[in-house]
Each structure stands twice: as structure tokens, then as C-alpha cells.
Amino acid sequence: DVKVTQSSRYLVKRTGEKVFLECVQDMDHENMFWYRQDPGLGLRLIYFSYDVKMKEKGDIPEGYSVSREKKERFSLILESASTNQTSMYLCASNGHREVRYTFGSGTRLTVV
Amino acid sequence: GIQVEQSPPDLILQEGANSTLRCNFSDSVNNLQWFHQNPWGQLINLFYIPSGTKQNGRLSATTVATERYSLLYISSSQTTDSGVYFCAVEKNDKLIFGTGTRLQVFP
Question: Residues near A62 by Cβ (< 8 Å), separated by ≥ 6?
């Protein structure tokens, strides 16, 4: 069964820490995405990548960066975590000209 | 940018009831999808439906692209239908989500 795997289901970090959220897909997909989900706001796109070493800003990139050194892995980085980054983070992938997106099960991050 | 609005924001049903969820979008789009997020957070794709009507069991969806809306119908609802339903549109290779409809189905 094809899947998108996010490394942690729950994470608690302190304000100011550098945080890495990892996402791995086994479908050889070119496109990968990071979203955050907050109550009443739906899912908002943070960053996405169309290929290795490529990245594009989404709608809310401030306070985040990403890394895509290998096709299967897309990392979201919080350089200095803040309490307003407490949220559910979802990773997704799809292939070029594919209509279906596959989502990971999410990482619930709490910054204290 | 494109706006995606869903209604109602919350819906409470008794098992066996039918419901209609609506999604309005503000611009022409390449693609429209409906997702169900279960209580554990997993997003499952229900329909890819840029236009027309599709059915899958008790669920069906209709998109009228010229009028920029889509409807998701749930018939004979079950407690396992509970969760959040999202509409998402694709524009410029990005998937943009609505704010969702939270559905609770009680026995």
C-alpha cells in the first residue's frame, strides 16, 4: 500500500528551539507539500516542491523553511519555534499530471 | 487569490439522515476534490470531480463549474461518517482548501 509517512505523531518543543518535521513518500512522486491545519481556517499551504532541491513558497511561509535533498523526503524546518506555530502539520504528495493527492497522518506540534 | 467557502461549518445528524454540504469557489479551477478527515486526522480522498456528477456508495458529488460550486451528498448517514469534510480546488498546481464542514453523526 502506497503511503506518506510523517516521522512523529505528536511533538512538544520549547520556544526558540529548531524543529524538524520529516515526511517520506514511497510513490516516487515529484510533488510534495506541507500544510498546517488550524480550527476554523482549514488547511493552509506553507511550502511545496516540484522536484529535488526545488522549493516554492505557499500562502504562509513566514517562520518556516524546507529542504528536499532526496526525491522521497521533504523536511519542514522551524528555525526558532514560537507558540503561534502550535498546530497540526500535514504532508502530501502527488505525481506530475496526477489528480490524487496522498496525505500523511499528520504531526500535532505543541510549542510551549 | 482564489477563495473557497464551505457551508455549513458544523452539522449534527442522527444516524440515517441525509445531508448536503456545499463548496463555493471564486475563480475557475483545474480540479476540485472532496476529502474526509477522520477523527484521527487522516485525510482520505473521496472524489475528484472538476465537473459533473459522481457516486460512490452512499456518497455522491456534483460540481457545476460554470457556476463555481460543488455539492457533496451523504445519504443514510452512519456514525463512521463523522469527521471534517474538506473541499479543495487546484489552481496553478496548488491545492487550496476550504475551511471545512464538521459533521457529527449520533446513533
Answer: none
